[in-house]
Structures are given as C-alpha cells and as structure tokens.
Amino acid sequence: MRARAGDPPRTMPQKVLGGRCSDPQLRGDIVDVKVDQVILTRAPGRAFAEALALGLKKTPVELAMVYDGTCVTDAATLEASSVAAADLLQAGIFVARPGIGFPGPVHLERFAAPARLAVTDDPRLASVGGCGMLTLVVSPGQLGQALALGTVSLRPPRSIQVLLSGRLRPFVGARDLALELIRRGIGEIVQRIEAEHRAPVVIELAGPSARLLSVAERAILCGVAPQLGAAAAMFVSDEKTEVYLRDQRRSKAHRGLVPDAGAPCDEVVTIDLSAIDPLIADETGQVRPVRDLAGKTVHQVVLGGDGGMTLKDMLTAAALLKSKRVPPQLDLLIAPPSRQVLEVMAQSGALADLIATGGRIVEPDRRMLTGELYPPVSEQLSLRTLEPEPRREGQASFLVASAETVAFSVATGAIGDPRGFKRPVRVTVPRALPTDDVLVLRDRKIELAPTKRAQPDGIPAAAPAWDAPSTLELVQGLPPRGSVSKGGRALLLGSLDEVRYAAQAIDELRDVRAIIAPFIPSALVALFAGAGIAAFGADDSALETLKGQRQIGLPALGDDEVSSVVTVKLGKAQAVLSWLAVGEERRWTRTGSSRPLPVRPRVRSSVAS
C-alpha cells in the first residue's frame, strides 16, 4: 500500500485502517472501519446471534470463517449448544470442520491476506499478522456488526516498531526470538504507551533481517502480542510474503505493506538476532536462558500445537530425533499445527520417524491449548512449543521453548541446551504444498446430515444499568469457578494474565460488573464494555486502599464523556479510580451491549402548496 502524494507518513496499522475509514487520518476516540474478514473460533453462536439480531441475511465481508475446534467428542460435547453449519453457510459464512488443524496456522496458510483487516474472538489469531494482516479481538456485539453490516467501531491504535538485524545462529529458532521480545520488556513499553495515550498498541516488525524469516516464523513472533498486552502484531508484507502465498496457490491475495519512512511510531526497539541464545519460559512465564534450567527432568512434551511451530520446525525435530527413543518417564505428544503440515510430514517420512521415536499423534482439539485435554501434571515438568493460555492461581502450567530445545529434551529426558547436539540438521521444505480444502464447507446448497445443534447460542440478558449507584462484593483475584454473587461483584486483579483470563471467561462471569487492575489493555476495555462490565485503572495508592476490602460502592456512570475520574466508597474510606472506557465504549458499558444503535429513518416533510 503506497502513500499518496501529500499524505503524511503512516505506520502499517494506520495504512490498513485509514484505507477503510471515512476519515483516513483516524481522528476521534472511536472510528468506524470496514472489515475484510471475520474469524470465529470460541463462541461463534453468540456472534451469529448478534448478527441475526441486526438483520443478517448474507454477510458483506470478503471472508467470514467459523472453525469448529472440537475434535474429541463425548456425550457431553455432542449435547453442547452451537450453531448449525447449514445456517452459517446460508449466511455466506464458511465452516472449517474438525480435524483441519488449529485456527491460527490454518488461516495463515489458506485465507489470511496482507494489508487487510480481520476481527476475531480469539487472541491466538494474532499469529496471522505474520503475513501482514491486522487482526483484532473485538466483542461479540462488534463481531455481529461486522457479520451483518461489514463495519466495526475501534480505537485508533498506536505503534511500536521492532527492527530486526543480524542472523539467527544454529539451534536458535523463531520461538527463541519471540521469547526475547518478552525478555526485552516490550510489555512494559506497551503499558507506558497505553497509559499515555489510552489507545491500543500494535507491534510492527520490520528491519533488514525480516527478509531472513519465513512467513510461518514471522507468525510465531506475532503470536506473543497478547502476552505483551498489545492489541496485535504484524510483519511487513514483502517478497517473502509473496513467495509464501504463491506456494499456497494464493498469489492474487498479495499486497505489499511497509511503514512509511518517518512514520509516527511511539517507540523503536532494535534486536540483534545473532546475540540471542536458546531461551525458555518457565512455569511463572519468566524468560530465562535454557542453561539455567539444564538437567531438570521432563515428563511431558507437546511438539507442535497451534502456531508455535512451523513446518520446518517439525521436520527439524523429526530429523534430530531420528533413531532416538523416548525415555521411560516421558510422554511425547505430536500435534501437527495443520492438515497441510500433517500431510507433508507423512509424505516425507518425518511422521514415521517421530512415531518410531515413541511419540503419539493427538488431534488438533482446541481444548489441548487450554489444558483441558492432556493437562500438565502437578509437580512434573511439561515442555511445549505453543503459547500458554492466560492462567489463574493454582492452575498447572508448562514451560515453553523452541523445537530444537524440545527435541534435545526428548532425546536426553531432561532440559538442556540444543547446541549439545553434534551438528545442526538441514531440512528441505517442499515448495509444492497440498492445498486441498476438503474440510472447508463453502457451498450454501450442500446437504448436511441432521444435527441436534440447530439453534445458535442466544444473546445473554443485558447487564444491570449503571444509572444508579451500586454496592458490589469486592473479590481479590479471580472468583472460584461456579460461585455466584446475587448482588454482583467487582474483581480486583493484579496481573495482565488475570485480566486476560477474565476477558476470555466473560460468559462464565455473568455476575461481574466491574474489573479493577493496574493495567487493562484498551482492546480488553472495549471487550468488557460490550458485556456491561466497567473497566477501572488503579494506581498503587488506590490498590493499597482496596486490598482487604469486602465491598465497594460505585457511583452511577452517566453521560459525561470528558471526566474519567471515579471516586468509590470503601466503608469509611474512599479511593480514586480511572474509568478506562472512551466514546461509544461508555454507552456500551451502560447498556450492556456493543450492538450499534438503530438508524432512524429520515422523515420527509411536505409543504402544502
């Protein structure tokens, strides 16, 4: 996307959004932009119900896709409510059937397109930014608006530019580089910019060494954006992107995208790839050199899964483990990211090599990512290549490392530096890739077998209005699963992980009316607002006052669009909080829905002659 003569220099997010907005300069707290793609994976029935409420007949977006990620079924999952594929197809929405793979890598291979805007309900789709697509998480109401009307309302984002230089050394992979982004404190930079501008932050990755990374490797870097508190991450779209799309037989989808020279980004970070060592994220999420944990026994390994590994990584791991045997105490699970990767591994013999090692293949079920299937065992080390989901206190966690580090741990039974292998292996990724979308339903006239899951999930009842003061139970941290408060609750959360967990569990937290935390990303503020949950920021003094309190008195949230300062009552004490919603988000909070207001038809007046 080239800038027109006379236009000010723009960042990549500004180019994508500006070309889809009536105001290319993106002025205002909230702007309406045209959507190219809608990707639903977690609660498609809810978004579909919102779209039907807005009068959806056939979606106007370029592509709308639903991924059914439930591969392992039992009596309970078969009875779970969802939307019927026939209804989605009738509305022009494609359906990816179970077994196609995890949504992130599959969408990157088959449907993602550079310089486009996609909205989704799944933070893990941040990885498709590897091809230069801007992918943002929005509320169910906004997803319904995108499906029905083709537009959404967003805060214009700010940008951090990460410039890559140098070359990765042997046994150092893209996962190590992604962990380096966390270790370098990009998250703290995101928080500072959010606090200063009250706008979501997009991480732009560019620099002279970007061309050395494949699109799949770029996707791994973009996938860490939610962990950093960023709304999205995106790479430049260049010759490497064009070659990738050509190999996927989608060359027509290519568009070039680079930031303009002198574009107004808020921070520039330079990373030398040649200075990165093999890294590992421990159970607490802290990134450390692999050598710090060397010698610790590993009991479970998940190789693959979601966007944590590329096809090249899978082939490399298979080559490194050829003729090796899984240690007696270790359980090796092989989760090919996509059907395409599985087919290539089968054709090349890499899959047979991993099976001979002692690994077993698992289906690409979404619950593997959350730990519901194959959970880490308490007090035993589980090592994986995929991004962790947000964790709550007491939940089992796992370590994250690169394919090479994982392969070394499988070969030896303990964590160790992969440079302990005698020599690096060379693998060849085929250019002719299988691109048969046999598990994608597209035809509206297709005859489907009858299903009990015939009705879309309903729209939850609107949250109580904020037009009067309210007294809520104040909960320190996330509430116990299944607990309910009749009068409503406010959650005092201390970490970004807890805030992200609450955002993903909104449907389970129906009685929560307020979230209070030192940092809540702007994208999640909008998500909470769409459910009628007020998001408040608190400084150290306010947090200290709130700790130990059992109730909190919140004032009515009126129509004042200027003031963000809210004084809350805590018995005889008081605390000052900052209401983080802006513009239309405040109406969403008060009404409990981000659905757009109906447009009133103009009444023509006639003058009698």
Detail the topology: elements first, then pairings.
Layout (H helix, E strand, L loop, with lengths): L11 H7 L12 E4 L2 E4 L3 H10 L9 E5 L7 H5 L5 H6 L3 E3 L6 H8 L6 E4 L13 E4 L2 H10 L1 E4 L3 E8 L8 H10 L2 H12 L3 E6 L8 H8 L2 H4 L3 E4 L3 H9 L19 E6 L6 E3 L5 E3 L10 E5 L6 H11 L9 E5 L3 H10 L1 H8 L2 E2 L4 H5 L11 E3 L14 E3 L1 H10 L27 E2 L28 E7 L12 E4 L3 H9 L7 E6 L4 H9 L3 E4 L2 H7 L4 E4 L10 E6 L2 E7 L4 H8 L18
Parallel strand pairs: 2-3, 2-5, 3-4, 5-6, 8-9, 8-11, 9-10, 14-15, 14-17, 15-16, 17-18, 20-21, 21-22, 22-23
Antiparallel strand pairs: 1-7, 4-19, 12-13, 12-18, 20-24, 23-26, 25-26
Helix pairs in contact: 2-6, 7-9, 12-14, 12-16, 18-20
Report what the structure shows:
With 609 residues, the protein is α/β, with parallel strands linked by helices. The chain has three domains: 12-275, Aconitase, domain 3, CATH 3.30.499; 281-423, Aconitase, domain 3, CATH 3.30.499; 470-591, Aconitase, domain 4 (Alpha-Beta Barrel), CATH 3.20.19.10. Helix 2 (44-53) crosses helix 6, helix 12 (311-321) crosses helix 14 and helix 18 (522-530) runs parallel beside helix 20. The strands form five sheets. It has a seven-stranded mixed sheet, with helices on both faces. It has a seven-stranded mixed sheet with strand order 24-20-21-22-23-26-25. A six-stranded mixed sheet has the order 6-5-2-3-4-19. The relative contact order is 0.13. It contains 20 helices and 26 strands.
